[in-house]
Amino acid sequence: MNLFLDILQFVIFFLLLTICIKPLGLYMSNIFEGRKTFISVAVLPVEKLIYKLSNVDPEHEMNWKEYAVSMLLFNLLGFIFLFLILILQQLLPLNPEHYKAFSLDLALNTAISFITNTNWQSYAGESTASYLTQMLGFTVQNFLSAATGIAILVALIRGFSNKL
Which residues, 6+ apart, have CB-to-CB distance to 8 below 8 Å? Predict the structure, then answer.
């Protein structure tokens, strides 16, 4: 490739990233502190509906045990979901290459690595995992494991700040 275009691409990416730092940081700060944001008008009705359907009181503050149990259950469900996708891959749709199911030990290893956000792969991704496995399994779990990490960090910060 052209070295100039490579450097230009990096500079443009770095500038866009730098421009986004302040507004995204303020947005995340507002979300974590429970303040309204510019999309609250659209999101709050959906959020309230989810709370109602889940029988969750949004005013209730959780203690550390409730946070721990919630995170463990959430990650357990994510693990089970991904594990099932991996061991049932050959029976599921969006598998035009007819990839076989992951072996139990490989599925266990892979599911654990994705829920812990290590994403360690002991397989050839594009020649082992179907489209559905990659989209519904790996991509979703990549997002959820990172989101879980952020949620745990915010809970930890809230715990420390409430004790001060």
Answer: none
- 39 and 107 in a single domain? The answer is no
Which residue shows structure tokens 């421009």?
19
- 70 in the same domain as 91: yes
| Entry pTM | 0.81
My answer on whether 118 and 154 are in the same domain is yes
Q: What are phi and psi of 61, to 5 degrees?
A: -90, 130
Q: Encode pLDDT of 79-104 as tens digits.
A: 999 999 999 999 999 999 999 999 99
Residue span of the structural domain in which 157 resides: 62-164
Distance from C-alpha of 40 to C-alpha of 46, rounded to nearest angstrom? 10
Pair 161, 89 in one domain: yes
User: 82, 111 in Cβ contact below 8 A?
Assistant: yes
Identify residue 62 by its one-letter amino acid code. Answer: M
- What residue type is assigned to position 87 of the chain? I
Q: How confident is the model at residue 159 (pLDDT cuts 50, 70, 90)?
A: confident
